[in-house]
């Protein structure tokens, strides 16, 4: 039967006309991203994490062909920034650039305004900075093994500095002491700078630091490296052994940086972001730009990042419990 001779019931005809009108009225869905992306950083401007975040934002913006704008939301150990992202629309336009504070805070703060795993979706690890165990130049030990031997022979005699209770250098040092059965006193400072100053002055004996902040003082001999807390030796300091190869297998102390999105974000958007991060991590010029400061670019898939978060949540909860660490 010719189409022109077909007769539709009035109700069906009206429904068809309405459906066609709606279809033409709806705008075509824009490809993601079509506007600037906010990258929320839970620390003040000017620090190491902020520095890396801004470089990553620039490169990520180039990969995605849209501006990626850094917004600093410091306070409450990173929980303010995390809560803001957790409660944002799951549309891929508000992201969190976070660090191990994300996995440490649940062990220190009983009532967080979000669920660390359920309210945020891992996108990718982006960068890693291994910690470096350093000692004041006057200390009677020059290697990691000598440090362990001295600490065992002199329980409670040595002090170590950290940037404050519950910070990564504090937590990772306590993990190391627990693994070795050592008694070294913790001295908490309000920030990494005063902690390093007192190490340089010989007020404390040792400190978990990084190559970037310690290198200039290592050259002058005011402090000396004992071991690096990474999987492998750093090409910047190939003569310094890892903690793992020095008798503590599997030990890691890594300041990682990664990107999270609000839970419920479309997996396709997360895949787009992950591909962009993979692209910037593979750029040789960008790799070299960060490597000079001991920063390694990575681009783990969301599942690997999620596994790291789960592992650290359990690990840091145990460290905090055994050391009875309280948040400042």
- The largest sheet has its strands arranged as 2-1-3-10-4-11
Distance between the termini: 82 Å
CATH second-level architecture of the largest domain = 3-Layer(aba) Sandwich
Proportion of strand residues: 15-25%
Low-pLDDT residue intervals, each spanning 5 or more residues: 1-6, 19-27
> Can you tell me the CATH class of the largest domain?
Alpha Beta
Main beta-sheet strand count, sense and barrel state = 6 strands, mixed
Query: Quick one: CATH superfamily of the largest domain?
Result: Bordetella uptake gene, domain 1
CATH topology term of the largest domain: D-Maltodextrin-Binding Protein, domain 2
Number of beta strands: 11
The chain-level structural class is: alpha/beta
Q: What number of domains?
A: 2
The shape is globular
Q: What's the helix count? A: 11
Helix content: 40-55%
**Oligomeric form of this entry?**
single chain
Average pLDDT works out at 91
H and E string: HEHEHEHEEHEHEHEHEEHHEH
Our Rg estimate from Cα atoms comes to 25 Å
Topology readout:
Blueprint: H1 10-25, E1 37-41, H2 48-64, E2 68-72, H3 79-86, E3 94-98, H4 101-108, E4 120-130, E5 132-136, H5 144-153, E6 159-162, H6 168-180, E7 185-188, H7 192-200, E8 206-209, H8 211-220, E9 223-228, E10 254-262, H9 267-281, H10 284-291, E11 296-297, H11 302-323
Parallel strand pairs: 1-2, 1-3, 6-7, 6-8
Antiparallel strand pairs: 3-10, 4-10, 4-11, 5-8, 5-9
In short:
The protein has 328 residues and is of the alpha/beta class.
Describe, in plain words, how this protein is organized in 3D:
The chain is of the alpha/beta class. It has 2 domains: 37-129 and 255-323, Bordetella uptake gene, domain 1 (D-Maltodextrin-Binding Protein, domain 2); 132-246, D-Maltodextrin-Binding Protein, domain 2, CATH 3.40.190.10. The chain is 41% helix and 18% strand. It contains 11 helices and 11 strands. It has helices at 10-25, 48-64, 79-86, 101-108, 144-153, 168-180, 192-200, 211-220, 267-281, 284-291, 302-323; strands at residues 37-41, 68-72, 94-98, 120-130, 132-136, 159-162, 185-188, 206-209, 223-228, 254-262, 296-297. It has a 6-stranded mixed beta sheet with strand order 2-1-3-10-4-11, sandwiched between helices. A 5-stranded mixed beta sheet has the order 7-6-8-5-9, sandwiched between helices. β6, α6 and β7 form a beta-alpha-beta unit. α4 (101-108) packs parallel to α11 and α6 (168-180) packs across α11 (302-323). The longest helix has 22 residues, at 302-323. It is globular, with a radius of gyration of 25 Å. The termini are far apart. Residues 1-6 and 19-27 have low confidence and may be disordered.
